Amino acid sequence: METAVGLITTNYSVKHPSVLTKPRPAAAVPFLGRYRLVDFPLSNMVNSGIETVGVIMPYNYRSVVDHLYTGKDWGLDRKKGGLFLMPGSAFGTSRKGPRFLLRDLIANRVFLDRDKASNVVVSAANIIYNYDYRELIRAHNESGADITLLTKTYSCEAEDVSSVYTEDGHVRGFTYGTRYGDEGFLDCFVVKREKLIELIERYANVDYLDLFEAIEPDLPQLDVRAHRVDMYTGTVFDARMYAKRSHEMLDSNVTAELFPPDRPIMTKAHDNPPAKYESGARVTNSIVSGGCRIQGTVADSILSRHVVIEPGASVRDCVIMNDCVIKRGARLEHAIIDRGNVITAGTELRGTPETVLVKEKGGER
Question: Is the pTM higher than 0.85?
Fold first, then answer.
């Protein structure tokens, strides 16, 4: 899409960190056996015809760079436009987990200056959905707004999602945290490129703030609007949410909406053999990735690549990441096992739906 470029921010910390985000940024957390969270906004942009995308890196950028590399798997290894991996700044002082730090925008102003697109689509990577941004851009252009936010009416509480208050179609304020019936901000917006440059110049002296923290006192002078959508969205801000979102992927209605054939979610390609189900294997209502060897019992779980479930082992309501081995007789329930773990024979690891047990990357128990 010639009238828009994309910008994805990954340089932020989550409010409730866990061992999942200790070795990697939130955007690089694996999801559904083969994806990373950053795949969703990046694929949404590519599927919307956006051919130039900048990704603002966190300080622990290795896993993001390893996953995205040149952008080839998203068709972004191009001579004109393509994928740009850009430096992130130091964190600001906000306590609210900002996703759109002014420092990041200021540090990468050259990305905005060199492009001639009319609009910039900006997104974070902690909310999973599949959406055609052309609808958002069309609504933005037709209204003539300076900024248009992507929003949704929430049917539950979400403390890490900001709610917006509108009056006559214009956004008049933000509140951190969303309750039932509130209009939740999906951490995605489209802004006129020249207006974004003007804003980062205007608020340069408070560069430690989030963009929307900075502009909130001046909302009466800005034309900020909300574009409401009705679709599946999955927020991922802590381990409990991650487990809940993963379990939702076992619902065929959810996956049908999230992975339509005409808008695929793209990711880094891996050449793996198919999963092997050996004698004694019993698998129900689960997603099993390529390269797995199943000899035990798996139920209501998601297994990433090259996971081994030995005879007599039982895995229920779990997420098991790459290259894990669940030894003979081990019992796992309501657990997230990060990559590279060997769970020794006879071990029992049990969490609850509200307090999920999380095993950090690597090591043995």
Answer: yes
